[in-house]
Every structure is written in C-alpha cells, then in structure tokens.
Design goal:
By secondary structure, this protein is of the alpha+beta class. Helix content is about 45%, strand content about 15%. Strand 2 and strand 3 form a beta hairpin. The model has no long low-confidence stretch (mean pLDDT about 95).
Length: about 70
C-alpha cells in the first residue's frame, strides 16, 4: 500500500495507541508537529484516506466529539 508521509505517521500513531481514543487536536499536534489551528478537517481527510487505502473502515472508528480510535480484537 502506498501512503504519504503524513498518512504513514497517522497510521503509526494509531498502531502505537491501539484501543485508545485519540483527540483530533492531539493527532494534529503529534503528526504535524505544530499547535492545533482550530480546523480538524486536515486530520479527518487523512484518516479517511488511510481507512480507504488499508480497507480499515471498520478498524479505525470515529469517537463522537473526540476523534478516532484503532479498534483491537477483543
């Protein structure tokens, strides 16, 4: 699977934090290494592309009013 550098960084963040809900703001600050600017669409778009490329629509789930979580088999 071909990923951009940012998509790879987002994936790595999820893999290092399985089952943990990550705030959009925190994802942005870690991956882009700058303060959150108030628009989470950048994170949303990268997560959407990552889900599609990996066919992980059911593995990376949205957490209402928080961000995203990588689901782990229980």
């Amino acid at each position: 699977v071909s990923l951009t550098n940012k998509e790879f960084d987002v994936l790595l963040l999820f893999l290092r934090n399985p089952g943990i809900a990550l705030f959009r703001e925190r994802i942005y600050e870690i991956v882009w290494q700058e303060d959150f600017c108030g628009d989470s669409r950048t994170v949303d778009v990268h997560v959407q592309r990552l889900r599609k490329k990996l066919q992980w629509e059911d593995k990376i789930t949205a957490v209402y009013k928080v961000g995203y979580r990588l689901e782990v088999p229980g």
